[in-house]
Amino acid sequence: MMHAQKAVRGRLLVPVVVAGVVLALAAKPVPGSLGLDSPDQQRREAILDYIALTNPDAPIHKLDGFPGALVAVSREVGLDHCLALAQAEVESRFWPDAVGSAGEIGLYQVLPSTATLWGWRGAELFDPHVNTRVALTYFSDILARRPALRDALAEYNGGPRNRSPYYALTVLENYARVLRHAKLACEPERNPEFAAPERREVIAPGRPRLAPAS
User: Fold this and answer.
1) In 3D, which of 184, 197, 196 has the Cα closest to residue 70?
2) What value does the mean pLDDT of the chain take?
3) Number of structural domains, the chain?
4) Is residue 213 part of a domain?
5) Model-level pTM?
6) What is the tens place of the pLDDT at every residue in 153-183?
7) 98 lies in some domain
8) Is 178 part of any domain?
């Protein structure tokens, strides 16, 4: 008869039957194997819990792969996944099938023309994983040109000529609420500055050292 597993000095004693003899083999526990979830699993469940809390009507069964994509792609582009989570909430309230009045699709309301720039077809934007990757890759491209978070969010929302602060403020107000959820394990230190620092000039002594920001 197989006996229950026992932990000894941080290892599991796993009973194995060989030729009718029970052998106890020591094995290192795998995260989650003792009922303890790994940090990534805890974060994944926290993200899905947050979505269900903020929008009980969101189709959670369609968002199973979203948390992993959210965390991975956010780190690739240098953002806190909680900021990206807040942005998705503002854009679609976590509806992967959402379609905007101008044809924007999915969680981050991405235009099919934008998806084409990154090698994806518009129809693929209904996939939360694809939508997240396209949206955050596009946002990263904007940040390379407009490194202030406020300006980058404005362009994401309204194009290169948009200077309105309202979208950025809406996302960041929502982000402030997301940050209160400790289980999401937010990483705000990854984000760029909200506003661009003042430009400094190399000038002769005696003259003002700061040039007004344009």
Assistant:
1) 184
2) 81
3) 1
4) no
5) 0.75
6) 999 999 998 888 899 999 999 999 999 999 9
7) yes
8) yes
